[in-house]
User: Fold these one by one.
Assistant:
Number 1:
Amino acid sequence: MTDILALGNLETLERARRVTAAEQYDIGSRFPVVIEAAEGSWMRDVEGNRILDVTAASGALLLGNQHPAVVEAVVDAVRNHGAVFATTLSPQRVELADRLTQRYPAAEKAVFCKTGSESTTTAIRLARAATDRDLVLTSGYHGWHDWQLSYLKMGFESRTRVVNFGYNETALRRLLEEFADEIACVFVTPEPAWFDVDYYRRLSDLCRAHGVLFALDEVITGLRWGARGLNGTGGVPADIVTISKGLGNGHSIASVLGRADVINAYDKAGICGTYTREVPPMAAALAVLDVVADGSVHARTEEVGAALRSRMHGVLTDAGIPAHVAGPPMMFDVILESDDLARDIFRAAFDHGVYFEDSGTQMITAAWGDAEVDHAVGAFEKAVREVLSRTDYRPGAVTNERKIEFATEAFGGELVDDAALLAKIDETVAAIAARERDSVVEPPTACG
Amino acid sequence: MTDILALGNLETLERARRVTAAEQYDIGSRFPVVIEAAEGSWMRDVEGNRILDVTAASGALLLGNQHPAVVEAVVDAVRNHGAVFATTLSPQRVELADRLTQRYPAAEKAVFCKTGSESTTTAIRLARAATDRDLVLTSGYHGWHDWQLSYLKMGFESRTRVVNFGYNETALRRLLEEFADEIACVFVTPEPAWFDVDYYRRLSDLCRAHGVLFALDEVITGLRWGARGLNGTGGVPADIVTISKGLGNGHSIASVLGRADVINAYDKAGICGTYTREVPPMAAALAVLDVVADGSVHARTEEVGAALRSRMHGVLTDAGIPAHVAGPPMMFDVILESDDLARDIFRAAFDHGVYFEDSGTQMITAAWGDAEVDHAVGAFEKAVREVLSRTDYRPGAVTNERKIEFATEAFGGELVDDAALLAKIDETVAAIAARERDSVVEPPTACG
């Protein structure tokens, strides 16, 4: 490792570009830095600079890096237990499943996988196998697997039999009326800055009224929109919930929670996976659940997040920059008139030691306190001032149109019931009705 | 955890059944035991029994559990570095990619994911994006994702545009002649007990002659069929190679290696994933590569595996049980006249403290030595004697028909060019030619 750590950020990026990095995902969409260690939410780059993380590592960190309870749980696992066994069952897995069934109302049983994308793929496979129905109605981002790619485009995808209804209630109502008994599940990723709990409750109620499984993709929100996600509020009943980010505090683990009869379709759905049994991330998850058990960690972190959200909004207001700042304290959006302006500001803040998420949602960890808020807000303020001083920015407004456009581009939200949308719904209904009814591929009985 | 460890195996299985276990995958296809720790290849169940693992945890373990070098690498990672950062690039990732490019001839660049299934999904997405072609020709098991489900059934799957040619050279030749310029890649999982290096070399040469990318799924073989898998022999050039099992010695990590222009299609293919950056499994992988660097670990382990293979074969021969024992020392098959007979024997051996893979390939780790071979062979011998003494078994033969049937059932091998097969090839060609040419779903540019 010595030779790599002797290189600076730009040299390391250059080396990364040769052997591993994707030009956009790994380099272009990030700030020009390679991190070699992090404690709490403070990262240290290969040149020794300290940088505060406001992305929570794409939301994967809940308590921050090197949290003692998680570290000791993982160390105990690798030193005294091991990584994987011939059996897929371990006491850690059974205990973790048991705790999750107590934590989330939807969960009678819990199964595990490694990534958010695999958890949502598992969820719809389970729903299809449990119901013998092929259609999946969905809204929002569920990952990068093949069936997940059409999340920005309302409509029917004939190959995957996935129908994207773009969070539009009119569309959902119509689709349920037309096809209720052919729908395996309705699968929605909560967008807490955009829809309130009542909205999701209405979707849940609609599904129940039509006898359709309702699934929540809480990969991001499960431990971040409040302590227990949307399902954990008790206000939004669901039959299936996927969770991942935060659960292992950065160690890769995801879970599909749900009704026993749905989870029990596991074998029929042909799901498996060697690393589903991996013990250390389960040990990490048990430690995380211990730490957050009494709710005080989330309560305190939400206070800190609320302060950050409010002070960032204040900086923008003071500078005369219109902004739409919305969402829960641990995952809030800062939307300006243009994405370019936002990116310029966040890039400038990076030069003052703060790594904001320049394209989306700001997320903090439980390692944040007043010092982190002060540092982040200070850098943000300087960045705003610098960008204003070097551009001819004239304040406009964050119009309703701008918000609607943002929702469409960020998560495929179709928020306006105009004529075009109603026509799109008709077109989707026609495409679904005309689909081939050939049977779904039957999973082989033997899982490798 | 205390309360769970106070339960015996059967009580723990019962509890698992209620909250997490799948009836077949987690319980029915395994021996009735819950493991709570393992050192080397010795597992300890929740009742304190010691059991020797001959599955290498579905092949995921290369050095055995609690290998000091891997343990210390993971401990150092979690104590001094962290789990995940805001950046997807870390010195560990760059270093690991660099080492893999030196280790496997196919690898100009390497990208990472968490599971074997995700690595093969990534591989075909890259091939399709790099070539702008839709067809994927495949043979063998690639995982549990949707496109991977038809691996036991030769033919064309219209929804996924995957063509399974069942390891049949006549079929591959014909398909390449008909559709070469529409094939994104030919993707084959080596079955080392069934086809020799020359066979794969011929497939590779055929692909090159037709200008088609050749991909090897070495998720299982990459560090187990010899030290560097099939591609590492240098005898089988490939454009893409997937590896996973053994790489992190049980810690979840997988890699897609390949030509730079193929790996560089990553963004276009819409691939991403929060945990692709996870540092501790990369630290584990670097430690594994250190340990196996000079080849002596593999050389010694192959000697031990060869002894186990030969002595198990000897036990069967001495007992008058015909057997086909084949495959490399670290992953060999023991095929009897009937699967039931094999299962009976392995189940009886389990009662003597040895956990064989009852349905497939026996796999050892580098933690094995003479004592492990003695223990395994002793238990196997007792098991054979017990099963023979309580059944009216009359030796027949492992016929060629039996081998052909096994190959079809285990990995979809179509080994005989009979009239039915030739008709199946014609039918497949017709189905491919008649497929809809609608465009592939374009991945969104923004990856979540």
Note: Residues 31-60+296-389 of chain B form a domain with the Aspartate Aminotransferase, domain 1 fold (CATH 3.90.1150.10).
Number 2:
Amino acid sequence: MPIPPKTLHFLKKLKAKAEPSAIAARLTPRAGAPAPLMTLPKPSAAAINRIWARMTKAGVPETARVELADERTLSEAETYAGNIENMIGTVKVPVGVVGPLRVNGVFAHDDYFVPLATTEAALVASYARGAKAVGRSGGVSVATLGEGVLRTPAFRFASIAEAGLFVNWVVSSAEALISAAEATTSHGKLLSIDPVIDGEIVFLMCRYETGDAAGQNMVTFATEALCAHALDQSPVQPRSWFLEANFSGDKKASFLGTMLGRGRRVTAQVDMPREVVETTLGASIDEILEYGRIANLGALMTGQVGAQAHFANGLAALYLATGQDVACVAESAVGFTRMERSATGLLVTVTLPNLILGTVGGGTGLPSQAAGLDVLGLKGTGHAPALAEVAAALCLCGELSLTAAVAGGQFGSAHKRLARGSKT
Amino acid sequence: MPIPPKTLHFLKKLKAKAEPSAIAARLTPRAGAPAPLMTLPKPSAAAINRIWARMTKAGVPETARVELADERTLSEAETYAGNIENMIGTVKVPVGVVGPLRVNGVFAHDDYFVPLATTEAALVASYARGAKAVGRSGGVSVATLGEGVLRTPAFRFASIAEAGLFVNWVVSSAEALISAAEATTSHGKLLSIDPVIDGEIVFLMCRYETGDAAGQNMVTFATEALCAHALDQSPVQPRSWFLEANFSGDKKASFLGTMLGRGRRVTAQVDMPREVVETTLGASIDEILEYGRIANLGALMTGQVGAQAHFANGLAALYLATGQDVACVAESAVGFTRMERSATGLLVTVTLPNLILGTVGGGTGLPSQAAGLDVLGLKGTGHAPALAEVAAALCLCGELSLTAAVAGGQFGSAHKRLARGSKT
Amino acid sequence: MPIPPKTLHFLKKLKAKAEPSAIAARLTPRAGAPAPLMTLPKPSAAAINRIWARMTKAGVPETARVELADERTLSEAETYAGNIENMIGTVKVPVGVVGPLRVNGVFAHDDYFVPLATTEAALVASYARGAKAVGRSGGVSVATLGEGVLRTPAFRFASIAEAGLFVNWVVSSAEALISAAEATTSHGKLLSIDPVIDGEIVFLMCRYETGDAAGQNMVTFATEALCAHALDQSPVQPRSWFLEANFSGDKKASFLGTMLGRGRRVTAQVDMPREVVETTLGASIDEILEYGRIANLGALMTGQVGAQAHFANGLAALYLATGQDVACVAESAVGFTRMERSATGLLVTVTLPNLILGTVGGGTGLPSQAAGLDVLGLKGTGHAPALAEVAAALCLCGELSLTAAVAGGQFGSAHKRLARGSKT
Amino acid sequence: MPIPPKTLHFLKKLKAKAEPSAIAARLTPRAGAPAPLMTLPKPSAAAINRIWARMTKAGVPETARVELADERTLSEAETYAGNIENMIGTVKVPVGVVGPLRVNGVFAHDDYFVPLATTEAALVASYARGAKAVGRSGGVSVATLGEGVLRTPAFRFASIAEAGLFVNWVVSSAEALISAAEATTSHGKLLSIDPVIDGEIVFLMCRYETGDAAGQNMVTFATEALCAHALDQSPVQPRSWFLEANFSGDKKASFLGTMLGRGRRVTAQVDMPREVVETTLGASIDEILEYGRIANLGALMTGQVGAQAHFANGLAALYLATGQDVACVAESAVGFTRMERSATGLLVTVTLPNLILGTVGGGTGLPSQAAGLDVLGLKGTGHAPALAEVAAALCLCGELSLTAAVAGGQFGSAHKRLARGSKT
């Protein structure tokens, strides 16, 4: 049969449900949608209750309300102002802890308890195993290699010629553009402006240092001011312009971010004695290297951005436990893992080029999220560089543990043991 | 100066901190790491307190304990068994709601209140605005196009010739391999086996239907059985083999997933009247299309996987509110957004090829997460296909709202208004 | 300075040439272009002379005419009918030969003299060195793993629902569609039809076997007939449709081609004794493996499609010498090279997933190109599968030789020795 | 059946050929390969005849010799010294001409006859059609946006710390490193050094201006000297180092090249009146834009590097006719094509970020290749920038013509008309 099996199977399943024409009919727009909720920007017990009244009427069960809009959440509702709209409660995500994780970094140089929020069995146990092996090897060496959040406006001109004249003006006006941008922020610095032309369109890649904040809003406001200055002063005027041209890698995996770095670029390494590998990780160096070679080929053959095993697991859990923007996992969880034989035993290296995170701003000041930073000892001003290095060290632990589990044949069994009942 | 500005800047900053040799010295491994925490797989108040005792001694402040290990969390600790190890409490993430979102889907056909857990200002408001515009347009048409979670073991043989003989055996033994795999699961089905050879290595791309579960564990256990059968029966034996060859796109953006689909592949569309675009979204169709063209070029020039604005924001918030594995955002938040002029006004289409989600298993049964599914009316068996369609409809709302905000020049101001104070 | 050095430098250079406004003015359209040449589809001495008359008048020197439109070319001009329009002569590309290259393949099983047309010093010598090392190792094992040229039409419908109904019709009409396609060709077979939906658009990935021809035209004509049948018979009609949707990977590097294969997918391998590596290639196995690890990281960090050293060099030269479509190098020169330690010494593997080539059709029948196939012993019907295997074996030789050159520190010196004078 | 149709089909075909075990046996290494040809670096009639004597003995037919080693080739054999080894003759590739192509560029500002060497029917005719349409629109506006060939050595140190110290030394020694590099060349300039760290490995992206040469050898020799200086002077010494780390995008499609540019980056544009589109190209603007949207989606869905139709066709033909390194098509034939509606009619833009080409060195001085440059009026010193702009203008013509052909439904028929007989 010349049709792929998955297509045949899915069509059969759909047809078992209804006639094709009936299915098609279900997709037709229907007028008369119910009135949308008013957007309530300020959370409060009253506002929460108002929304629940509407949802209850629509049939959402009372049990849901009890779990989301519990007493404590209602009493602290105002705390969440500036972090959420249309608030109806809180979701409680269990937090496990890993460590102490010994980090020998430029900015992070301590033994850290690392809080991880997740609902996935075996995740914390796996990272803990990696951290244990790392501790027995003297800790993880980590270095930040650069930083800089991008925001990239675009300007469309009448012609290539005008685009060129604009770039010429930008280059000669760089200092003034920087002043305009930096006037909007007390912590941000505009490090560089890189103009990229495609025909009559000019992109300006603006790279900022954002202090201890993740900085996504900071770079937006600063770039808005930069654009305003350019529009005010440039001798050539664009036909249209946009504050962000989908050119920064914001919240998505891209080769630009992976190559040039967005957020902090951090590299981490451990040189692990053979005995630690074998006893703590339960696989031989030969097995791990054999798996490493095949996993690298897998990454290449499937067109991954970078090549690594599961940065996303550790990062998502750390981001969640410390009030980061979890959506940034889409861009931060890319990078490179290498495993090689060394004189000592096994040399493991990870590099994460796009760590978007902070210790001030965003969700970092919320009660339980600030507590997460407190577990690390990294709450507030001055700690973002260390948090980035801890994140990279953590990812290294995860790569080590998962790789050893697959290499040593424990991958299936570990999940079976730690997951809740036989759920498959 | 022939060195890039960002490099010069960062080096200067490092040197301001310490001498290069002193920085280098900080990276040296240090023996004598503190004993790691024992891994405690079963959460309970006692276990939580035991870990806190250790952390408190190490200096973690009592305030952190109060926020994470609150009364309610301690009393419900056992509930989290099978979802976390080394539990120390819960992080409380505020949940906002969007809707009712009118969805005209094959599986989802209703008006949905959609819970979104996030700490990022403006996110809920933005999706709410999109949902409102969609409601005024008759809702979102959505269709699931396919499904199938991948697990891909690898087998290394002595030679290309043996690899070929193994593939020949696999093809002739497909039915027996499927039986072996399916014996491990009551809900999973193995839809297809696609052998890929590179030299002496054979990858078997196994695609499963996983019922209402996200299915990552299910496909692991089933593939483990399939491999056991192959190792037992195949006339040619591999020199090494691995249950997963980093070839499935699991927890990372890859072109394989984007092309072939991992999890559910869903497409969603709305044909929005001009008047709705202008009044609800605050931008003209011309402005939106102009931005769309530039944003598409941005996606291409920066090497995105797919081309879209911010699927990650909506997906991460929905996943978190409904007990999904948030790390899967790394793979699920890829896809395609198109905006085109239509006779009605603006035709907007999104396609998400990799939706990994479920309504049973994982974190979906936890108290507040199950409540999130209850808000949607999609808790438990039979609802995963609808949840996937709601997710795609939600992403469409977000694409619409963000695109209109950038196109209409409201992007910076909306964030300024809704974020907490002047934090930059 | 916040502007990248390369940008500053280039702007300075431009300004040294002229004022920015003067440069901008040069880009303005100018009316009154000279009349274009008439397109002359049939080459002949008379037609060639006619074009030269026009060019000579426009100032093209007589010396150019002598070199391109030499006696022999003029006398054989008609031979080139169906391969060129507006013919003005021939360019003479020097051909070197490599071998005999011992190939132990499924289809190619012999010792081959391999003709390579190139103007780049050291290329032939480098491949020759690889072939020599391979010969001393018993030859290259090669296997074709699959074949199938893609052509992918697209159909846009009024809605997702109609797109779905069309796919349903296509699946149920597959046999008739295949008959329609295959009626246009005596050698082509339509192997599979894979429908891909994005919103209201349907792509049909049609995969063909093309016999001994490269097949680009064959699949175009067959798919045109398939589309005509669909348009004639389908109960739902598209609003627009296109014979090729830029969805086949035709003449460009793509992850689709690299993953799914376009043209022939071939893998080749040699297990080379340590002594051969060291004496023939001039580098130790340790050096080669060390370089291999770094080169692999380089491929990943720079976002290559696949990971290899220079397939393009060997393929372009072979394609040119045997009348292939050299533009296909853009898609064929992707793939994977692996180097690993083995019991014997060094195991080297290459896989090329997209070999577009043939031994009939295109330029393969032209006098000197057919001679190139004759050197290989692979002219005409029945030889395309062997040619593909020879191509892969050749690429392996090149990977081996270049890798050893870089690893052993001979890379610069080899080029210095063989290039023409000191030209830099 | 759970196995993909293409796999089933291919296995069946193989089995029709022989038993699996017999096929497997064919791949076994065989000792006793015939002695390889001695490598003859200096072409001459005698050397050519010597190789033919060997090949003739091995059964290569005399007819092949006559075509490749013709009188003229034998008499001019020495001309090819420094461009080929083991020379056995020349392959004659037919050259067609397109134009005059009106180019309004920064460096190219004239009406050009453009020679294209190809064996593919319809290629020259298609580009000629595009050139005609362009001429009727006032010509193509073109601008070079930057230049710079990369060479990227790698250095592996004992640790991250040492890697950092090396980068610190490189930055402080940049001027001396540049002097060392530039001492090797009279025309090359080292524009920038961009250090990239991954763990203990340092890559130095060295970007050179290469004057009128393509420059691949120039940058190799210069970087060799730079490395020698670094090894001599650096206070930290690498454990291993390599002159090129597969990090430059040399001869392959990569996102690095597409983003940062390798070779010359050129953009070209035409704003074509509606009437010209319709009468010269035979498709309406609506049809072309409709196709453009779908082709763009095709590029994204299949993971192209960039998004364009067939740069490779025009570039390969121009490179071949002018003595460029045709293998560079693998890297040069990437980029971006945009088609949009304008006040005039249709705005078409192409950008090619990686044009590797020259007017001196390589094959540009060979008799018929120099003649190709003479047809353009761009032979020798001072003309490389113009050649790059002509190349981009040419690619624009091809994009226009092919897109219109597919959009207007002439794609299949044009190939049928111009190809040689019914060859499918």
Note: The first strand of chain C starts at residue 87 and ends at 105.
